[in-house]
Amino acid sequence: MRFETGQIVVRRYRRGPWRTWAQPMRVVRDDDAGLLLWAPEGGEFARLIDVDGRTTHDVSPDLMHDPKLKLHTWRGNDVLILMPPDAGYSVWWFFTGGEFSGWYVNLEKPYVRQDDGVETTDLVLDVVATPDRQWEWKDTDEFAELTGHPLYFDAATAAQIRAEAERLTKLIDTGEFPFDDTHTGFRPDPGWPLPRFAPGALDR
């Protein structure tokens, strides 16, 4: 089952029994190259937050106090996300004021399709790259701290995640797809309204 261009689907993260993130996004393309999704500034998203205001960047979900998905508004940029099939990562193109402002590589498990979207698990380690392909690691301390945690990954899996990230940084260095000019001039359909959650989507 593939999604239709223009359709709104929900991109979700899960950690054990907890849904940690959900974001409605517009389908740009869904084909053999992967699922390409668009989320403009001003759209909705939800993230897991406990009663103390902590997120999964602060503490693992098993140590949260009464965590719940809380609705927010996406601010700061527009984002185009490519989720290649069976890949352990997604690639994000950020746009600020309508202009391409850099890439973001999010290490994550291969996604699973659902009736109304896709679900994956974030693997913590990320790479940020500027338009001139200067890159740096992100969340390395958190990645090291969570290695061995039963909800995350063991040392062997962490090494595999790091190896995949290093492979992708080599593509950044050489300007190979997806870190060439592909999608850097993307413009959404001007008739697309802001993506919002359908009723009940946060309860799934």
Strand content: 35-45%
Low-pLDDT ranges: none
The sequence of SSEs as H and E is EEEEEEEEEEEEHH
What is the mean pLDDT?
96
The radius of gyration over CA amounts to 17 Å
Secondary-structure content class: mainly beta
Largest beta-sheet details:
12 strands, mixed
Question: Any idea what the shape is?
Answer: globular
Tell me how many strands there are. Answer: 12
Number of domains: 1
What's the CATH topology label? FomD barrel-like fold
Supply the CATH superfamily name: FomD-like
Range of helix content? 10-25%
Q: What is the topology?
A:
Layout: E1 8-15, E2 18-31, E3 34-39, E4 44-49, E5 68-73, E6 78-83, E7 89-96, E8 99-108, E9 112-114, E10 117-120, E11 122-129, E12 135-138, H1 140-146, H2 155-174
Parallel strand pairs: 1-10
Antiparallel strand pairs: 1-2, 2-3, 2-4, 3-6, 4-5, 6-7, 7-8, 8-11, 9-10, 11-12
Can you put this structure into words, describing what you see?
It is a single chain. This protein has 204 residues and is mainly beta. The chain has one domain: FomD-like (FomD barrel-like fold, Beta Barrel), CATH 2.40.380. The protein has two helices and twelve strands. Strands 1, 2, 3, 4, 5, 6, 7, 8, 9, 10, 11 and 12 form a twelve-stranded mixed beta sheet that branches. The longest helix is centred in the C-terminal third of the chain and has 20 residues. The two termini are 19 Å apart. The mean pLDDT is 96.
